[in-house]
Amino acid sequence: MIMPADAVNIDTRPDVAVEMPCRVEPVEGASRLVPLDKPRWRAVMRRLEGKTVTVRVIRTKKRTGPQNAYLWGVVYVDILQGLRALAEENGEEPAFTVDDDLHEAMKWLFLRKRVVLPGGEMIERPGDSRRLTMERFSEFVSEVIRWAAGYGIEIREAE
Fold first, then answer.
1. Within this chain, do residues 77 and 138 fall inside the same structural domain, yes or no?
2. Span 45-74, average pLDDT
3. Are strands 30-35 and 22-27 parallel, antiparallel or unpaired?
4. 40 and 100 belong to one structural domain
5. Which pLDDT value is given to residue 15?
6. How far apart are CA 57 and CA 141, in angstroms?
7. How many angstroms separate the CA atoms of 97 and 115, rounded?
């Protein structure tokens, strides 16, 4: 499965599978697929006009409230306390003092996206955790916990 951070530029590799999140909406007794990234959808469709394609539909569930509560209410709290303690031991200022800054750093580390600007310049930016599926959000939380473990910070279990 191609994850957003690994998305392939359809302009340079039209033979590669492309996955894009869509929503299924009812319309006059039927259903229609509504892409969440319409400009990208239109660009891909233009490249594929006249071609035969295979469409694979996978139902995704967004992250859950308990998953989000665990990340913000346990994982980030434990990490901030651990980083504060490490900084004090070393006579340094903590790298992060608020959970929002820590979250931005974790998105940069584990959800980074490559964006191609007009003219072909590629830049990187933090990804977005709000639209992650349950499975991918769990992976993200696990990656954050493993990162913290690298600093000797233990994270409490989910209740």
1. yes
2. 86
3. antiparallel
4. no
5. 59
6. 26
7. 29
Domain membership of residue 22 (yes or no) is: yes
What pLDDT digit, counting tens, does each position of 82-105 carry?
999 999 999 999 999 999 999 999
Range of the structural domain that residue 134 is part of: 65-149
Q: pLDDT averaged over the chain?
A: 85
49 residue type, one letter:
E
Q: What is the DSSP letter of 76?
A: H
- Angstrom distance (rounded) from CA 64 to CA 58: 18
Q: Within a domain: residue 42? A: yes
Q: Which helix (H) or strand (E) holds 26?
A: strand 22-27
Pairing mode, strands 30-35 and 122-125: unpaired
124 and 87 co-located in one domain: yes
Structural domain includes residue 39: yes
40 and 71 in a single domain? The answer is no
DSSP string computed for 79-106: HHHHHHHHHHHTT---S-SSHHHHHHHH
